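User: Is it possible to get a 3D structure for a protein together with its bound compound? The compound here is FE2/S2 (inorganic) cluster. I've pasted both below.
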Amino acid sequence: MPLYSEKVMDHFRNPRNVGVIENADGVGEVGNAKCGDIMKIYLKIDGSNITDVKFETFGCGSAIASSSMATELIKGKPLSEALQLTNRAVAEALDGLPAHKMHCSVLAEEAIKAAIKDYYDRNHIAYPYGMFPDCSCCEHQCDSQQQ
Ligand code: FES
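Assistant: Yes, that's possible. Here is the predicted structure of the complex:
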């Protein structure tokens, strides 16, 4: 069996939603300290819906495929739904990732959450403390930092 599914290869070779949104309503950038890969997500938000999403990923093929699939999964969706997107759902939509590449899909989940957090912060929209536990994307200290 090949290491990567056809879907992973397709989204790696033909990534959807690559680029930058000028005047984005929310931008999230996260990185993985171990591999050095970086992912940036741009959101255009109308009311509570994501009307457009683009990404820039400087990373491995699995990170690019994960970014591409994640953006497809949240495009046109309500923010509440995008906030529920897990890295497992991204990997499943790609018909799986090798175990040692699952962390690449984590970047996609974190980058989307960081972009939504940025939107909330810019618009002074309150959210529960601890809702965005990844300290790499927020200014305040918290003790629930994820791997
Ligand atoms: Fe770093 Fe894939 S190896 S995100």
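The first strand starts at residue 26 and ends at 31. Confidence is low (pLDDT under 50) at residues 137-147.
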